[in-house]
């Protein structure tokens, strides 16, 4: 309960929320001339205001309508807090303005703005019924599926869609459509959308979210989630769920389901989200008929927290944690791709364990997870740390429904899972294209000279150093760096080679166009030079004009809306998900080196009289063998990224490839020549079927094409069929926007098009073995 010391001097308006353990004191005792002196001044708290728990409000404070005082704040005497303002801290200071604050009259019209079909969809999603079956007569009394967990799912959807935080005791009153409508009106005024978007959104634009989902992480998560929730029913129908994410946890996790589905759908990954039985992790991992086992084509997620592992009989948590870990190891040995969370900080006010025990358990858990092959670690820890331990917990919901976290945590946790899912199912961007002036350094090198640039360990130059450090980290992770700058080339390289504070060096750059041409044209040339699609590029430039020109003429490129203040450059880059990769392969770590070698090959080709002499002089060596466990991450990566020379265009995950390996032969091709090692550049998945060899997958990295290596790979597949006594090779072809090349190649190699999507060849008509390629083959079991 709040502590109201001077009720006769405290004026509290309508529908004010005051948290527990608040101290509201309208008087003070001071020492004046050696005497104790009593002074007082009224406190005024306006309508619809919210004061977080454990706050102190001093005498003479005036809080206007709709203001928020964050939990644990100390509002000093005579402070004036304006309408719709948010204050916090000790002493409390102004944080932001609630731009979307609405008065009571506006709130009364809110329900009228709600599309009934949208509300029906929220209810239907929670109780797993078609939206057309939701009526005024349907409620929790006549629908068994409308249980307490369904009500929590409805509350989570209301938060996602309208930013309404439903008080814990009100959640279980959400038992009909009418009660939901009434709650929207009654509670929207107490907790409105966070309007701090302008502080964290590129260019301060709060009006709309971008069409390109890769840019969504740059925007305020609550605003994005609300916008995604406003998708029309037509759009939702077009993106029906094809796969399922099953979440198993030691605590109630249903509130994250709405956010997870919305964000996955935004990235064109229409997953449905289901939940295993409460606190049945070991059973879900080990039972032969569990939700995890029955979800072979989807993703499974394990969430836990220290509070659920440590108990009176297990004071360090090692017994339960060890049992759970063994179940995870057992499951991952049979099926890869499991998502497991690390352990977040303790937030429960009811937890009685010791901090040292908790930290030892968290560290041990992280170390053990990192040893398990084939799992993805979800950074639950960072989600809670970002929100803050005090703001992360919800004691009431933990007591009532075993849901220990605030709506903010559940929303951010759903978004964090989406980020991991995106890295599993979607390819990462390959190229970061960078402007130079006022992007890599402050100032214009052509005007300010190398000595006049802002680039140092002090402000403002430190902003650019920090940005360069983050760019270099991306390069170490396999991202290619290219320069696209309107400058004199000599001036730019002078900075790279001679400025003492440069983090990036010339050797870090895989390609460049430093001239006065349109940057869109330069990007097209670089894409051709690197043999990559424009959709692999991310473009960063401080100039809105240059960004608009690139967006207009090369819409395939992801264009980052950079903030005006360079101090936020590194932060903006760190928020992007598009460079996330499932795993770092050997080829990724040396990608820039591979591009340098490719340039050497092009230069060498110019000095050779004809193509045949060039190919013979390359001294090509192709090693073709059955894939081993260490090759599979690269195999997965090639299925995800290869668009041109790719027969099937089927994108596969690591668990899918591991399952395929049990019944098919996966061939890989490693290539090297006189200039260096190309790495693993080819994949073939072969399956004998009814006297024929089914060519499920036939792909090659575009940087290995045009050297006769594809002929060598296909020759090996024919030889494989001969040794298996098979008569024909069947090549199902899935047409895409850029893979006609592989179809043309097969037709030139003697295949015939029997159907629009099927090519066939007689094994007896094997292509010739290319003489200029030395082949090391081991593909037979």
TrEMBL record:
Q: Which domain of life is it from?
A: Bacteria
MF terms from GO for this chain are:
structural constituent of carboxysome shell
Q: Which InterPro entries match?
A: ACP-like_sf (IPR036736), Acyl_CoA_acyltransferase (IPR016181), FkbH_domain (IPR010037), HAD-like_sf (IPR036412), HAD_sf (IPR023214), HAD_SF_ppase_IIIC (IPR010033), SGNH_hydro_sf (IPR036514), Transf_Hexapept/Carb_Anhydrase (IPR050484)
Q: Which GO terms describe its cellular component?
A: carboxysome
- NCBIfam families recorded for this chain? FkbH, HAD-SF-IIIC
Q: What is this protein called?
A: HAD-IIIC family phosphatase
- Name its species: Moorena producens (strain JHB)
